[in-house]
Every structure is written in structure tokens, then in C-alpha cells.
Design goal:
The chain is of the alpha/beta class. It is built from 13 helices and 10 strands. Strands 3-4-5-6-7-8-9-10 form an 8-stranded parallel sheet. It has a two-stranded antiparallel ribbon with strand order 1-2. β4, α2 and β5 form a beta-alpha-beta unit.
Length: about 325
């Protein structure tokens, strides 16, 4: 597994992490035994970066991670990035010092640790991030030793740029970045590198669309956001299928499939494409089975994609994909 320095203190993390939204059962039911098997497969494959949030499953994702790492004695070896800001007691306008610290304390308990490796603002309102107060609160929590670093998970490139400019101590930005969402390359990456801000690439497989395993008959459980948020009914539409309408996404996948290099799957090509950008510190695909976690981890050791393939993918994005994306990005 390749590792890379992350953020301003250059702590080493794996270039492939594990997105842990699905551990909260927001992608359909997931048994505890299967969740633990996914975590074990990931860390056994060299993954040292886990991304979660306090709101995933109402704390279930954090709790599963905390119990797993504690029992395995891995709390000093695995970097856990969590998020806050979407629970109802904060969102959308109660980002006070007391409320934020309360959320941090709950995450500390669930993750069974004395200090959180990274706390990210979780797609909170832009107008809150534009003010000084929330950044001052996070800096104070670093001073108290409750958190080690802070970052932000954002929806748009404009928010990403604003966060870099607003918060000099910012460690990281988590953004939607995949074959369907290429705007950060031009709008964010150079500025992030100049300011030693690590990029965490989320929704890397467009909620599974870029796995190539869906068709027009595919259905999703009622509790799966790919069902209830397909058109942005619950939260930003970009978080589900990267904002591309499902049926259109299937057509785009058909165009991408013939481009896959021999010996790779479509999912591996999509993930390798992301890692070919050195501004990206870590990509965080989710996994609903241990074998998926292993396949995802393996892409860190695959060779970079050919230059010609990058150019073909860039042209396909411009001509066929860019105008289909819904929601602000």
C-alpha cells in the first residue's frame, strides 16, 4: 500500500482509505459481523485511513469503528477522520462552542479515544463557514487537545477555495471527485497544494455507478440513499450518483467500459484515475463486502493510467458528462 504525507504536519496515511458511511446502514442493512469483516479486510490490506461522521447511522459507524480498533489494538496505527455539523442539534444554525464541543465529546466516546485525529465540518451552510466563529471554535478544540486537526467536507469548488482562504490552519478538504466530477482539477488542486491542504476524494465511484455493476433493472433498498435521495430529496443531489441522473449514468458507463485497460476493472480504473492526481492525498471508496474492500485497496499498487487515456477521459467528460451534472458543484 502506498502512503503519503497528509496536511501540514505530514502525518503518513494510506493513499486508499475506507469510506464508512455504509457502516451506519445508510446504504441498506449491514450486519455487524460484516461491518467488522470489511474493516479487518481493509486494515489487513494496508488501509490506515478511515472516514466516518457522527451522523452516519446516528453514531453507529463511529461506534463500530471505535470498538473494532479498540479490540484489535489499532488505535495508534489507523487514522480516523470524522465529521460533525449535520446532526439536528447543530444544523443549520446552532454552531456554538458548546454545541460543537458536545458533538466532539460524543465522537470521542464512540471512537474510544482521547483525541480525534481529524474533525471535518460536514457540509454545513456556506454562510456559517464564511464567518470566523466556527474556525475559532475548532482551533480552540485543538488547543484543548480534544482534536488534533480540523478540515472541511464541502459541496462546491467555491466553498473549497473559501475554506482554504478563511482558515490558515486547515488540514484537509473533502470533495466529490471522480470521472463524472472533474472541476476540482482546475479550480482547487493547485491552491490546495500551495497551502499544504490534503484532498480527500469522496464519492469516487459515483455511489457505485462507476463499478459497472448496475443496469436499468437495479433497485435499491428503501433505506438506501440511492433510492430516497436519487433526485436530491433528502440532501445535496451530488452525494448520490455524483449528481448524474441514474439512467444517464448507466449510458455514460457504457461509454467508459471499452476504455478500461487490460487487467483492470472499471472500478479500479476509476479509482486509479483519481490517484493519478498528486493533489489527492487519499481516496475513500466504501465497501459493502470484504472482497470489495480488498479490490479497492489493491489500486494503490497499480501503475498510473496512460496519458492518452487521461486525455480521452477528459474529452468524454467535456462532451458527454459535464452538462448532465445536477446541483451546485
Amino acid at each position: 500500500m502506498q502512503t503519503t504525507p497528509f496536511g501540514k504536519d505530514n502525518t503518513q496515511i494510506s493513499r486508499v482509505g475506507l469510506g464508512c458511511w455504509q457502516l451506519g446502514a445508510d446504504w441498506g442493512d449491514l450486519e455487524l459481523s460484516e461491518a467488522n469483516a470489511i474493516l479487518k479486510a481493509s486494515v489487513d490490506a494496508g488501509v490506515t485511513f478511515l472516514d466516518t461522521a457522527d451522523v452516519y447511522g446516528g453514531g453507529r459507524s463511529e461506534e463500530i469503528i471505535g470498538n473494532f480498533l479498540s479490540k484489535a489494538g489499532l488505535q495508534d496505527d489507523v487514522f480516523v477522520a470524522t465529521k460533525l455539523g449535520r446532526f439536528g442539534d447543530l444544523y443549520p444554525d446552532n454552531y456554538t462552542a458548546a454545541s460543537i464541543q458536545g458533538r466532539v465529546e460524543e465522537s470521542l466516546k464512540r471512537l474510544k479515544t482521547d483525541a480525534l485525529d481529524l474533525v471535518q465540518l460536514h457540509c454545513i451552510p456556506t454562510e456559517v463557514m464564511e464567518q470566523d466563529e466556527v474556525w475559532t471554535i475548532l482551533a480552540d478544540l485543538v488547543s484543548q487537545g480534544k482534536i488534533k486537526r480540523f478540515g472541511a467536507s464541502v459541496e462546491t469548488w467555491r466553498e473549497a477555495v473559501m475554506c482554504i482562504e478563511k482558515a490558515p490552519e486547515l488540514t484537509s478538504l473533502q470533495i466529490i471527485f471522480n470521472l463524472f466530477r472533474q472541476r476540482p482539477i482546475r479550480k482547487v488542486f493547485d491552491l490546495a497544494k500551495q497551502n499544504q491542504v490534503g484532498i480527500i476524494a469522496r464519492v469516487p465511484l459515483a455511489s457505485g455507478l462507476l463499478s459497472g455493476k448496475f443496469d436499468r433493472q437495479t433497485s435499491f433498498a428503501e433505506s438506501d440513499h440511492r433510492n430516497y435521495n436519487r433526485d436530491g430529496a433528502a440532501f445535496n443531489v451530488g452525494e448520490t450518483f455524483a449528481g448524474v441522473p441514474f439512467e444517464n449514468g448507466l449510458e455514460l458507463v457504457e461509454e467508459l467500459a471499452p476504455l478500461v485497460p487490460e487487467g483492470m476493472t472499471l472500478a479500479q480504473m476509476a479509482l486509479r484515475w483519481i490517484l493519478d492526481y498528486d493533489a489527492v492525498s487519499v481516496v475513500i471508496p466504501g465497501a459493502s463486502r470484504p472482497d470489495q474492500a480488498l479490490a479497492n485497496a489493491s489500486i494503490a499498487d497499480l501503475p498510473p493510467l496512460p496519458t492518452e487515456l487521461h486525455e480521452t477521459i477528459r474529452q468524454l467528460y467535456k462532451e458527454k458528462i459535464r452538462d448532465q451534472i445536477r446541483g451546485a458543484y
